[in-house]
Amino acid sequence: MANLTLDDICVRFGGLQALTDVAFSVSEGEVVGLIGPNGAGKTTVFNVITGVYKASSGSVSYDGTKITGLRPYQVLSMGIARTFQNIRLFQNMTALENCMVAQHSRSKSGVAGAILRSPSQRREEERIIEKSQKALDFMGLGRRADEVASNMPYGHQRRLEIARALASEPHTILLDEPAAGLNPAESKELMESIGRITDLGINVLMVEHDMKVVMGICNRIVVLDHGVMIAEGLPEEIQKNPDVIEAYLGQ
């Protein structure tokens, strides 16, 4: 059974039809690429999945449970994390603190425990620090745990966003243009990192314009154009699809 399933999603903003009958799935340990020209509706798909936008019709299911209409924090608690096209780190916080914020989504201590510094709260804080450090280590940022996010190089900030998503202990990660602004060496490192993420059993849905990255790591690719799915298939099939070539890759 697919972990994440979109079933005939439609989104309308007034008279604008942003998505029309979008339907696909992402299975455990799979990397699915979501591509298309600017304005195709890719980020809108992410916003529907994560509860930022409400679908006009259709449904989103996760592990067989409908999550359509849930708030973003509820979607995160279900095990779906995301990054953003424009970096949205807490710039004045350290790398470790950024990841700790995500880990607090799994926190069970209440306000009283935090104020009184109860033994259970202290143990949980230790666990949060340990899990956050582990996420940084996984993304190759372990030695930068105490570095303020705004002082980190751009490529490392991109990696920190993924580390923060991993710190929430997700089963699915939505990556919104993770290779944007990266040089070839950084893009190669990113591809290796995403491969290691799937080795953990985490499935990935990725919006990306760097076709070398998309073709290099995706198991399947979904193509949108003006909010409509025009193709879905293996990378080699998408490369040869005439509709994709015309709409996105160019003649």
TrEMBL record:
InterPro entries the record matches: AAA+_ATPase (IPR003593), ABC_AA/LPS_Transport (IPR051120), ABC_transporter-like_ATP-bd (IPR003439), BCA_ABC_TP_C (IPR032823), P-loop_NTPase (IPR027417)
Keyword Protease: no
The entry's keywords: ATP-binding, Nucleotide-binding, Transport
Alphabetical list of SMART domains matching this protein: AAA
SUPFAM superfamilies assigned to the protein according to its UniProt record, in alphabetical order: P-loop containing nucleoside triphosphate hydrolases
Domain ABC transporter, chain residue ranges per copy: 4-251
Recorded GO MF terms: ATP binding
UniProt entry tagged with the keyword Chloroplast: no
Xref: PANTHER family: AMINO ACID ABC TRANSPORTER ATP-BINDING PROTEIN (PTHR45772:SF7), CONSERVED COMPONENT OF ABC TRANSPORTER FOR NATURAL AMINO ACIDS-RELATED (PTHR45772)
Protein's name according to its UniProt entry: ABC transporter ATP-binding protein
Annotated organism of origin: Pseudodesulfovibrio methanolicus
